[in-house]
Automatic annotation (TrEMBL):
Coiled-coil zones: none
Compositional bias of kind Acidic residues: 120-131
Example of a GO biological process term: protein homooligomerization
InterPro entries: BTB/POZ_dom, SKP1/BTB/POZ_sf, T1-type_BTB
Protein name: BTB domain-containing protein
Domain of life: Eukaryota
Region feature (Disordered): 120-145
Amino acid sequence: MSSKNNNIDISENLKRSSERTIILNVGGIKYETYASTLTEYPDTLLGTIFQDKNRAMLHPQTGNIYFFDRNGYAFRYIMEFYRTGKLLLSERDKDKVTFVTLDEIEKEIEYFRIPVTEGSDNDEYDDDDLMLDSQSNDKKKKNHNNPAPASVLIHKYAGAKVDQFINALEELIYEAMGCFEERIELKFFSNTSDVEAYWKEIEPALKFYYIMKPYGVIGYCILDKFSKEIQLYFESTMQSISFQSTQVIDELTPTGNYGNYYKISINIKDRYDKEDIIIHTRLANYRVS
């Protein structure tokens, strides 16, 4: 961030230092903010409620605390929208035990009337931003009256995660080939505690499997929906391997409980013949018979 932007942020904070904060109690989880942060987006539910002209209609629990009977964990994404203008989605917060699904976030987006807008193919955004509302004031004005359904953006984000998962599997296969491996086997559990126990158990013995570690529960969700399509993709694009995805139901898991998981088994058909390999190395002209 430039010094100019830093100065703007500091100036904005000083301006607000005299403004009274409000506390949003969402499903028992409290978020503290300024009313002006919410009214910056007047067409949203909270932006409408906390406008000065509607103050007489507000009914706080006590003092400056306002209760909303909604999903308090998913609301943190809504709150970040008000603060940054973006929906910053992550598959799981490593510091929290609570996993929030994309469906839960979508419901809160729709309830709080967050005006997400569908970007064009040329829009730039990073993998952790669902981005949207607009990237500039001009775009805000252009899209302000035509918000895309939240589900469109959620589905785009979910699709991007599926592609990232496939890319990681491809990288894993290439790493295995580079290490002369003949077989890869991985498990993806539906339960966070099983995921953590599984990696704790096998990680010390792994070489390059760490590539798939970020895809814990999300890997299970992806395979649960797309395992057949993923298998067909790999068998069509990488004919030197066989790819199998199997769902295992109600089996003993690493935590000692019974649960479900997916097992991926990848067999590399090529047996790494010396002559086939050496022609692709610097040793091609130095063969010893």
